[in-house]
From TrEMBL, chain A:
This is FtsX-like permease family protein. Signal peptide: none annotated. Keywords: Cell membrane, Membrane, Transmembrane, Transmembrane helix, Transport. It comes from the Bacteria. It is a multi-pass membrane protein. The chain crosses the membrane at residues 15-40, 259-278, 306-329, 341-364. It is found in: Cell membrane. It holds the Pfam family FtsX. It comes from Micromonospora solifontis. InterPro entries: ABC-4/HrtB_transporter, ABC3_permease_C. The lineage of its organism: Bacteria, Bacillati, Actinomycetota, Actinomycetes, Micromonosporales. Residues 259-368 form the ABC3 transporter permease C-terminal domain. The keyword GTP-binding does not apply.
Automatic annotation (TrEMBL), chain B:
This is ABC transporter ATP-binding protein. The keyword Metal-binding does not apply. One of its GO terms (molecular function) is ATP binding. InterPro entries: AAA+_ATPase, ABC_transporter-like_ATP-bd, ABC_transporter-like_CS, ABC_transpr_LolD-like, MacB-like_ATP-bd, P-loop_NTPase. Keywords: ATP-binding, Nucleotide-binding, Transport. The keyword ATP-binding applies. PROSITE patterns: ABC_TRANSPORTER_1 (PS00211), ABC_TRANSPORTER_2 (PS50893).
Amino acid sequence: MFLALRELAFARTRFGLMGAVIALIAVLMVMLSGLSVGLVNDGVSGLQKLPVTAFAFEKHVQHDAAFSRSVVDDDAVRAWRERPDVAAATPYGNSLVNARSDGGVEIDLALFGVEPDSFLAPPVSQGSRLSTPDGIVVSTTAVTAGLRVGDTVTLDRIGTRLTVVGVTTGQHTFGHVDVAFVPLDTWQRIKAGVGPGGVLPDRATRESTAVALRAKPGRTLDLAAGDAAAGTESLTLEQSYGASPGYTAESTTLRLIQGFLYAISALVAGAFFAVWVIQRKHEVAILRAMGAPAGWVLRDALVQALILMVGAVAVGAAVGVGLGAFITGGGVPFALSAPDIAAAAAGLILLGLVGAAVAVARVVSVEPATALGGNR
Amino acid sequence: MNAIAAVEPDTSRRHGLVLRDVSLQHGDGPDLVRALDEVNLTVAPGEFTAVVGPSGAGKSSLLAVAGGLTRPTAGTVLVAGHDLTAGGQRARAALRREHIGFVFQSGNLLPALTARDQVRLPLQFASGGRRGRRDPRDLLAEVGMAEKADRRPHQLSGGERQRVGIARALVTEPRLLLVDEPTAALDRARSHEVVRLLAREAKQRRVAVVMVTHDHDVLEHCDTVYEMVDGRLSRHG
Ligand SMILES: Nc1ncnc2c1ncn2[C@@H]1O[C@H](COP(=O)(O)OP(=O)(O)OP(=O)(O)O)[C@@H](O)[C@H]1O
Ligand SMILES: [Mg+2]
């Protein structure tokens, strides 16, 4: 610490510039983390908030399009209900529609067809819960988009009219589209494209997208055995996120950018300390000639790096959070998550330290005899 | 630290530094350089020894070996009775911080530290005082730098830097002081002041001093003068 602190103070311009670079990387890190979380919310918050352990889809369904392609029938629901580890199994319908409200609001909706008395029926923060055949409960984000309780929306093409009876608690979106919960019977008519007055084929009254499963408390579902019995193909709730439109590609892209940012920051910090330490090579030789233990020199340099990294990352993260608060609620899906930011900051600091340690460790082994002679 | 065995207690008490048949070779085959060739040297506590000689004669090599910076190819080096050739890197570093002080060319101070901190630095890693450590403040006063204790190296003259370097080397109360061309960057008057200071410290603190120099002017302050030619050491006429 003795030397580390004095050098930080003495070379403050140099360390300040380096700190600014690290801080900027930290700002970027926070923004990226905000975008990732925002994107996850936008893509799958409707699924995340369902009290579901797993979904059983149609056998051999394509995993990344399971919600749009899969069709299961009542037999599968019944088979799953008989499983000993299943607390509840209920049909679940999923389809995307375009709609227009009487007030002229055009809105895309992800219709979640659920039985109003099942565990999937959502609690509401305004209005009433699902009950009437044409009543829907919409996400709070649909309210932001202009829908109100009591509004009537008309679905494009088939002309089905639905009335907003309630609003969920919190954001429910699926594939960047607002979720609207609708009674399963109505969902089946919409899915089959049967408008008002049309007749729903008998087969369609027994079909849904998937079986929503809830495990008994403290039990893990034996999905393979259940699938074998019910003739389905199930995915855990987390696995099913990948079936949300665009979710996998988007999150892969962001993770890739994040990975690059980590790599860049490690390189930047490593390169800075490498140059800094090489400039100090003669000083280190003097210290070693004076008998300073290698551990003392190493520790001193690491403390220096730690102070710089922690200070710069703290400033950068604070700025990033400030900027993020500014963006949140705007058009961009953005949400700050404290654990994510903490993890990103810790990762940044750790990588910087590793870079510094590698640089310092190489110089500590300098030949102390080089301190002799050499007019510096 | 059993690697630092005290040998021959008689010699250790009487002598600050003993080199016995010390050779140092660099490279091998046709590139072989004998930097030191069977050097024998004894410097008693309080004795101020100078080594002169042409460039490339092996003077810095002598200091490196005497100070445990470099392990000789052959021979024995004793400092205050401890065998510097017996232990490894770590043991030699420990002996350096306990028993040996270095004064480098033009001070070799650390740019970030004030004069006071330069002198306090060795106390940061010294193992807490087998003997009494000296007070950095007293020491700076003794070398005439009390007034400028808060200055950094770039705010000091060459002679002042050298004085701080001497104070830094003495703060751990070493038994052996190794000095490499202390007057290389100084004018006549400053050179005499610095060497006189070294001579005074050697006497007062009973430190064995070996000073390498090109400067024949300052030899008058020394007790013994050796000459080094092609790695061989001999008494200077
Ligand atoms: N690491 C090394 N590898 C090979 N040869 C070396 C090495 N260090 C020193 N030498 C050689 O050893 C000899 C003695 O070098 P040394 O530095 O001790 O001379 P010196 O008397 O201090 O010279 P100067 O007065 O120029 O400082 C020289 O011939 C030098 O080239
Ligand atoms: Mg030399």
